[in-house]
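sorry for the late reply, my laptop died twice this morning and i had to redo everyting from scratch. anyway the thing you sent over, i finally got around to it. pasting the sequence first so we're on the same page, its 98 residues, then the predicted structure underneath. double check i copied it right bc i was rushing
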Amino acid sequence: MLVEVVYALKDKQTLLAFEVVEGTTLKQAIELSGIMDTYLQIDLSKDKVGIFGRVAKLDTILRSKDRVEIYRPLLADPKQMRKERAAQSKKMRGGKNA
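ok and here's the structure:
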């Protein structure tokens, strides 16, 4: 069955499509893809992985045409960034409630 393994950096993306046997796990597909030889920073003990944008466990059995995604760690907490932008916006408005 056909699956894809995807990893993206800010300026470079890699998508590898290949055949695996039924019963292949998410972790096995990543290992079979060879992507960890190209991107040495991938650490499956720390990095989250998923299928089509949904976080999944490494032992998840893949289905035909699944896209396995390896997620990079976040550089900043999205909630904290929103709070900081809101505070900055409020400061620029002179602290008045809108």
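The domain at 2-92 is CATH 3.10.20.30 (Ubiquitin-like (UB roll)).
thats about all i looked at so far, will dig more tmrw
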